[in-house]
Design goal:
The protein is α+β, with helices and mostly antiparallel strands and about 300 residues long. The chain folds into two domains: about 1-115, no CATH class; about 165-295, Alpha-Beta Complex (Nucleoside Triphosphate Pyrophosphohydrolase), CATH 3.90.79. It is built from seven helices and 16 strands. The protein has helices at about 30, 60, 100-105, 110-130, 200-215, 265-270, 285-295; strands spanning about 35-40, 45-50, 50-55, 55, 70-75, 80-85, 100, 140-145, 150, 155-160, 165-170, 175-180, 190-195, 220-230, 235-245, 255-260. Strands 1, 2, 3, 4, 5, 6 and 7 form a seven-stranded mixed beta sheet that branches. It is globular and about 60 Å long. The structure holds zinc ion. It catalyses: a 5'-end NAD(+)-phospho-ribonucleoside in mRNA + H2O = a 5'-end phospho-adenosine-phospho-ribonucleoside in mRNA + beta-nicotinamide D-ribonucleotide + 2 H(+). Keywords: Hydrolase, Magnesium, Metal-binding, NAD. One of its GO terms (biological process) is NAD+ catabolic process.
Length: about 300
């Protein structure tokens, strides 16, 4: 089977038109730009205005109580306007019901808004969890518009990281194996996934996870595409993997259930003519992987 599927372009949480503008991050003049704007967050949620993101002038929020590190610089928009983001310590200044949980409702945003909001969310989470230097334990401080943190004691520079995760559709003949975690909504099934461990290739990680979670012997892994997943900072690397047979032994500590679904069943779910399972949300790579699998018969 060959995969020529092109996922939704841009891929959810990717394809931002904002130029990171690395050389200009630390420049104070960007704050004074007449068209500079800032996105607003509170506790990981982003303030929205319909399908767009709510914008405020940086000067208007400078006096509000902000979470560390204050305003972060996200980059320059297509017309050169600087865009920042800030995480408010309380939401009393925001319009009612403007905060959005990106994980649950991100599909309501435009693709570009989703991408830039996801990036900012990931960066804020990194700042929140890295107040101290991993080398010496002293306090760190944000630098270059939030692009890094530096330690005043040992001068180590710390940068935001992304964590690689393999997410793989297990295929055998004309069926695909999906699993569901404990506590997921009833009927919701998705592709299996796991973090890549030190010393592993992507293929080795998928093989190990397949054996651990469902006792499947996997081979023939093929890379399709990847997707940022800012909850908090994963890079989801999508594969299709071949199972030696349909025998599975579900590790009930890891999964509540795993089940084979035929192509006809998956097709019916995506065409809303069948209910064999509840499909993954559109903003997930699992949704895109299943669409890719369906498009390659
Ligand atoms: Zn240090």
């Amino acid at each position: 089977m060959t995969h020529k599927f092109i996922p939704d372009c841009p891929i959810p949480f990717a394809g931002s038109q904002v130029d990171f503008a690395e050389m200009e991050r630390g420049e104070a003049r960007l704050m004074e730009h007449p068209k500079a704007s800032a996105l607003l967050f509170h506790k990981g949620q982003v303030a929205t205005d319909g399908p767009a993101l709510l914008r405020a002038a940086p000067s208007a929020i400078a006096s509000l109580p902000l979470m560390d590190p204050g305003l972060i610089f996200l980059g320059l928009e297509e017309d050169g306007d600087p865009v920042f983001a800030a995480s408010l310590t309380d939401d009393s200044q925001l319009p009612p019901d403007s905060l959005m949980d990106l994980r649950m409702h991100g599909h309501r945003l435009t693709p570009d808004a989703l991408a830039v909001a996801g990036r900012a969310r990931s960066i804020f989470d990194w700042h929140r969890t890295h107040p101290f230097c991993a080398q010496c334990g002293a306090k760190t401080a944000s630098a270059e518009g939030g692009a890094k943190r530096t330690c005043a004691s040992c001068e180590t520079e710390h940068f935001p990281r992304v964590n690689p995760v393999v997410i793989f559709l297990i295929e055998h003949e004309d069926s695909v194996l999906l699993g569901r975690g404990h506590g997921w909504p009833p009927g919701y099934y998705s592709a299996l996934a796991g973090f890549v461990s030190p010393g592993e290739t992507l293929e080795e990680a998928a093989t190990r996870e397949g054996m651990e979670e469902v006792g499947a012997t996997l081979s023939g892994h093929r890379y399709l595409f990847c997707q940022p997943w800012p909850f908090p900072s994963q890079l989801m690397i999508g594969l299709v993997s071949q199972a030696a047979d349909k025998t599975i032994i579900v590790d009930k500590n890891e999964l509540e259930d795993a089940c084979w679904f035929t192509r006809a069943e998956v097709d019916a779910v995506f065409n809303k003519t069948g209910e064999a399972f509840m499909r993954p949300m559109r903003t997930t790579i699992a949704h895109q992987l299943l669409r890719a699998w369906l498009s390659n018969q």
